[in-house]
Amino acid sequence: MGNIQSISYFLPELMVIATVVVALIADLVYSDRNSYKVGYLVIAGLVVASFTLWLSLPEETTPIFLNTIVVDPFSRIFKFVFLLATFIVVLMSMNSDELKGVRTGEYYTLMAAMVLGMSLMASSVDLIMVYLSIEIVSIISFILAGYLRAQVRSNEAALKYVIYGAFSSGLMLYGLSLLYGLTGTTKLFQLSGSISSLGPGSNLTLTVSTILMLAGFGYKVAIVPFHFWTPDVYEGAPTPVTAYLSVAPKAAGFALLIRFFNTLFGTGQPLNSPVWQAMEGVPWQDILMVLAAVTMTVGNLVAIQQKNIKRLLAYSSIAHAGYILMGVPVLSQEGVYAIVFYIIVYLFMQLGAFSLAIVVSNRYGTEIIEEYSGIGWKSPYLGFFMAVFMFSLTGIPPTAGFIGKMYLFAALINGGSQFYWLAIIGVLNSVISLYYYMRVVKVMYFQGGREKDLYVPGGMSAAIVLAMAIPSIYFGVRWSFLADWVNSSLKFFIAGF
Amino acid sequence: MDFNILSWLIWVPVAGALVIVALPRDKKDVIKWVAASFTGLQLIFAIVLWMNFDKDFVGFQFMEKAAWIPSFNITYMLGVDGLSLPMVLLTALLSFLCVFVSWNIDKALKGYFSLFLLLDAGMMGVFVSLDFFLFYIFWEVMLLPMYFLIGIWGGPQREYAAIKFFLYTLFGSVLMLIAILALYFTCGRTFNMIELMATAPTALDTLSWWGFSGMKVVWILLFIGFAIKVPIFPFHTWLPLAHVEAPTAVSVILAGVLLKMGTYGLLRINFPMIPDGTVWFAGALAVLALINIIWGALCALAQTDLKKMVAYSSINHMGYVMLGMAAVVAAGAQHGSNSAAAQLGMNGAVLQMFNHGTITAMLFILVGVIYDRAHHRNIDGFGGLASKTPIYAGVVALAFFAGLGLPGLSGFISEAIIFLGAFPVYRTIVMISTLGILLNAAYFLWSYQRIFLGKLNEKYADLPEINGRELFTLVPLAVLVVLLGVYPSPIIDVMKTTMANIIELVQVSPLMIMP
């Protein structure tokens, strides 16, 4: 489809672009003291964008802008995830003490721009576009991580992030160029056709190319061994940014990963082919299975040793990336379904845990887990909801985290006997994660004593926590609505599940 | 039936927990009485259920079914049969009594009783669920209140005990989840236990895990999940710690009800759904039973902490339950189709589950009574207490005699019929395990002698006698122990038909028919 006709399909993204422009101009007008008001503009813009996205109901895959990106239900559900995550993180940032006293106009503008980058990631079907969208998201992430210029930690985080990012981008570009060299096209749909006619002689090149590209994607979603930037960046960045980085770009990375691998290494047919089969000769399924197993195990084992709540959540987010990654190599409707379901659930529990960490840090001035002692008694509100998020992240019923995990394991079990070992490693990892998640609960409840007056966080902070906690519990008890929505978003993959 | 009595059994304590959460925290007496009245109501429902239960009906009664998550075929399905009814009665009775056992709790009363009621609801849910997914949810939900109850209100090592308990049980249950999902997908995407009992025995034949028979792997995965709860050697190490560190009422619930969930799960899930696995594993189950019996008794003998001794005695007593269950193979051709022995063993197992629930509850309550007064539980730290506290000494004597299996008390009956049932199949094992009875007598009598007989320890010259509230919690249990010791029919009649049905389901296994 040509550029002009494409615009009508691009309305939500255009709204985001308009938001970025308006926010930039407004930031010039506002004084330092009022700069935070840009945040309200961004929120308004995100709401409008969500509304236009809600009105657009793509029935099938429509390629736009000269077939570089597509509009389909799959990218639509991810765009909702990005908009929601950004919306919450902007609100969280406005209530964080860390960002008080810094000019935050640019900060909110960059977040809005990041939504654009992530939306493109979720919908690109052209190698150039894949690379560009990843870079948009990465570069904005670098700036956000280093936003607290006065803090050494924050600067260190940004610099580390840039170096790792540049390195992995280079690797990915090389992988992409190998792919282009083999086939002479950058279009994903044409690529998958050409690959299947290449013959076994190219298998080695394809495998190398796959591994190199995985370095790029893996860096975005923080898969072991491309995860080394995560803990330092997560610890050094302002807490709302950490929360953001651990959810939204990760979701975008997985959207890209699913689309990329399922298109490229499917049977060489478009995504709506009735049965997907792994391509012969390229062991990308095995590679992904091993990566998933290693990722969650390393993430969990290292998380056990963490003393800082942000680092704990950072390593645990690596483990969660590992759980989600289990759904990719299954190459089935169930697998993709489980991934999307898990990402949505993960958004609520992870952002909830971070928003609580912000409230605790605002009130008690600490990020050290040992210093959380007695918070369950001093502030039952904080204690109860932290426990809910911890249980949900562990995956214990009746929380949404359990349902998400259950779907992932179900996809593996249904996928066939080659996936059983991964399912068993996955459930054992849940047990490991219980240990460190419960340490937070233990410190809050089993130690320390009650204070005279109980602390209840103020309006907006309490509302954000509540808004994250309600879905974390509700989707653990009744998730039909979410299940149906996710299901209908995958209609174009295979009818019915 | 319009009145959904099983839903009421589950949701009444939940309602009680919500009421308690809404109460102001300084109204301590109100909180206690609310807890007592809601568990009391639950007990009344349980008794009504028992009186309306049709003993000769094969299958499930008082069924309820509602759609829950249609896209994954999950339903809210409840029902009871002769296996779950005794457990429902036990749960309701012990929950009610434990409210009074907890009367002296002082720390964060509100949290304690609301968590306790949630625990009660979770246990009830496990025993009446007929949807495997629902069963799993209740099974797991129970862990949360238990973790807090041990971790906040427990003894000195409570933090370690709580997390160890949690990790062990979660380890078992996630393996169970894998097995549940495997059953779900191989048996036509259903969690309905009644359907699974019909389809699973043959459907699993096609399943293969890395060349192993899928049937066996699924059986083992489920078994580990349940074995940790029972607990079966070598998964038992969480038990002494958790039981000792938990507050008295929670120890009672742990030993009285939670352990039974393991054997209940084996009888409800493994036996009827995977009969081939059951027959294949029965011999090993009997050996594990023997280890539990001897190992538990020897460990109990070595303890100086009274509560730890009682905790190890639970491992021993659950060994008898497993031995009775293993006797199910007696109905097979290779053992001379001795259905009567199988029936004896299985009935004995369930009766022992019930009896152990009452006996061990008494023992833990009695340990709590003396700990409240002396603030230690060292068996050697007392002496001659019988002269100061004769009533207490008398009740303890009854409980100890019941625990060691004195004829005329309930423990004897169940252990005796278990041995009768298991003897035709496992002659040697039964003969060795009777040694366990002897060891039981040894540690119970020896500790009784050290605590109550001999010269009075001057430190406890003015030890107060057991009080009315404590007696109130003990008397119903003591009555049951004596009554079921002379007349066990009320419980056996209830379960007979169901156990015969389970035996028949296991009997269809080709392994049973081949001589």
Structure description:
The complex is a heterodimer of chains A (497) and B (515). Chain A is an all-alpha fold and 497 residues long. Chain A folds into two domains: 1-273, no CATH class; 283-497, no CATH class. Chain A has helices at residues 3-6, 11-29, 38-55, 73-94, 105-123, 127-145, 152-183, 188-196, 203-221, 229-236, 239-264, 284-304, 309-325, 333-364, 375-378, 380-394, 400-415, 420-446, 459-477, 480-489, and strands at 62-64, 69-71. Chain A has a two-stranded antiparallel ribbon. Chain B is built from 20 helices and four strands. Chain B has helices spanning 5-22, 28-51, 84-101, 109-128, 132-141, 143-153, 158-186, 193-203, 214-229, 238-245, 248-273, 275-302, 306-326, 339-374, 390-404, 410-422, 427-452, 468-486, 489-507, 510-513, and strands at residues 61-69, 74-80, 208-209, 212-213. In chain B, the strands form two sheets. A two-stranded antiparallel sheet of chain B has the order 1-2. In chain B, strands 3-4 form a two-stranded antiparallel sheet. Chain B is globular. In chain B, 61% of the residues are buried. The model of chain B has no long low-confidence stretch (mean pLDDT 88).
